[in-house]
């Protein structure tokens, strides 16, 4: 390296990098020739000899994050380790994407079937919570804010100890002070999305409320395009439309059978509440996808639970006092509340996996099948009859998901555009493209086994 180039590198690391005024070149980000393991070894040798400046853009999952006065040998080791990881991720991504030779490549992966399977489990969880809510409403126990409070409390009890163990109390509270306001917004959107969606069912009929849920998918697609720089291919749009068509068939069959709930108490008010709830759901899903791709799952769910308890607790105290006093309380109601809480907690704990392996759009489209499972359970519990159009609707939704992933990358939607080409800004967690790339690099002998899963 010439003296002038070395001087520019020093100025860049000392001045421009902390201010984030410039972007790194492909070489600095770890991109290189990937034709052999020797190239990787050569790059690792070069980066190991670079001067170890303190870098503000070191991952927050680094155990040394936040320690400004590090010894020079620790700084150099951290910098070298980070650059070696970036190089390994770039190599792994290159190898993985080189395997996308056919339109059906992604369908042959475990990830695709995992997204479908987990999506159906989430749909069953939603169906179960709706069933328990119906049981509660049947005995005049209408306490939507209060009954959801237990879910956020359980999330806190499960994930807070894990977060404190993984991060330590000092670092955990440091993250809370720095990023707490972001998690508060996420929790607020989630709580209010739940509240207004449930409220919509009080005023409008079932058919209108379900139709308004399509708006959540529209919000997700638009926000992902504008804010997260996601660029949908024509087949992905077609897949979403096919899924929506399947949902339309499902709703049409309900209308034919007269299961649309009749005339609502106040259709306009109910539709407005449903539209607001669907909008908040869509925004919160996109926000959560952004969070779980950059931060560990235990951290996201911990803060979602903590702030959810606070927000939902205040809301329940204000709006559910009369309903709480008039509700029926017995052992059966307690059992329904426990079932509702356990199903919803499982739902919240599994959502990050779909958001990482897929996307917010895939998540919302998967949930369209919840209505189908609701009818299946309804035949056993409430005596519903299955219309011949229901299987057609379910098949259309699954075909829509398959179309969505046709001719896509073997990584599907797990490679997030807002994390950079080599996912540098992402966390190496379960379901992420970054972890898949690191595992691929290890398999090809391009990286060591030192990088741990950051969940």
TrEMBL record:
Lineage: Eukaryota, Fungi, Dikarya, Ascomycota, Pezizomycotina
Keyword Transport: yes
GO CC annotations on file: membrane
Start and end residues of each stretch annotated as Disordered: 49-78
Family: Belongs to the SLC35F solute transporter family.
A Pfam entry, by short name: SLC35F
InterPro entries recorded: EmrE-like, SLC35_F1/F2/F6, SLC35F_Transporter
Coiled coil: none
Protein name: DUF914-domain-containing protein
Membrane topology term: Multi-pass membrane protein
Any one Gene Ontology molecular-function term assigned to this protein's record: transmembrane transporter activity
Localization per record: Membrane
Database matches in SUPFAM superfamilies: Multidrug resistance efflux transporter EmrE
UniProt keyword list: Membrane, Transmembrane, Transmembrane helix, Transport
Spans through the membrane: 103-129, 149-168, 180-201, 207-228, 235-252, 272-291, 298-318, 333-355, 362-382, 388-407
């Amino acid at each position: 390296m010439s003296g002038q180039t070395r001087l520019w590198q020093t100025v860049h690391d000392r001045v421009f990098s902390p201010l984030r005024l410039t972007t790194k070149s492909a070489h600095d980000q770890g991109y290189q020739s990937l034709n052999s393991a020797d190239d990787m070894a050569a790059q690792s040798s070069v980066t190991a000899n670079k001067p170890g400046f303190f870098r503000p853009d070191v991952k927050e999952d680094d155990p040394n994050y936040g320690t400004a006065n590090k010894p020079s040998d620790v700084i150099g080791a951290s910098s070298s380790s980070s650059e070696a990881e970036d190089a390994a991720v770039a190599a792994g991504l290159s190898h993985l994407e080189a395997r996308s030779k056919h339109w059906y490549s992604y369908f042959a992966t475990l990830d695709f079937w995992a997204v479908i399977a987990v999506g159906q489990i989430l749909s069953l969880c939603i169906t179960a919570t709706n069933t328990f809510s119906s049981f509660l409403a049947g005995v005049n126990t209408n306490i939507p804010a209060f009954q959801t409070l237990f879910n956020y409390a359980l999330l806190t009890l499960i994930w807070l100890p894990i977060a404190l163990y993984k991060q330590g109390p000092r670092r955990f509270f440091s993250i809370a002070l720095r990023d707490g306001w972001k998690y508060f917004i996420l929790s607020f959107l989630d709580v209010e999305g739940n509240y207004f969606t449930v409220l919509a069912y009080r005023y409008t009929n079932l058919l209108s409320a379900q139709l308004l849920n399509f708006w959540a998918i529209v919000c997700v697609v638009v926000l992902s395009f504008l804010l997260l720089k996601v660029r949908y291919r024509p087949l992905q749009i077609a897949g979403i439309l096919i899924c929506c068509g399947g949902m339309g068939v499902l709703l049409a069959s309900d209308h034919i059978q007269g299961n649309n709930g009749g005339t609502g108490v106040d259709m306009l008010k109910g539709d407005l509440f449903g539209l607001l709830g669907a909008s908040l759901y869509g925004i919160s899903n996109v926000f959560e996808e952004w969070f779980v791709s950059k931060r560990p799952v235990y951290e996201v769910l911990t803060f979602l639970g903590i702030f959810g308890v606070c927000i939902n607790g205040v809301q329940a105290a204000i709006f559910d006092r009369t309903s709480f006093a008039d509700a029926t309380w017995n052992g059966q109601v307690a059992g329904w509340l426990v079932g509702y809480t356990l199903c919803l907690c499982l739902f919240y704990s599994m959502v990050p996996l779909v958001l990482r392996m897929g996307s917010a759009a895939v998540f919302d489209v998967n949930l369209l099948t919840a209505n189908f499972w609701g009818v299946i359970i309804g035949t056993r519990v409430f005596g519903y009859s299955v219309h011949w159009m229901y299987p057609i609707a379910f098949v259309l939704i699954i075909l829509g998901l398959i179309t969505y992933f046709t001719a896509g990358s073997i990584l599907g939607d797990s490679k997030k555009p807002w994390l950079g080409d080599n996912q540098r800004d992402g966390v190496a967690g379960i379901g992420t493209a970054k972890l898949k790339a690191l595992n691929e690099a290890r398999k090809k002998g391009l990286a060591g086994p030192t990088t741990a899963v950051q969940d």
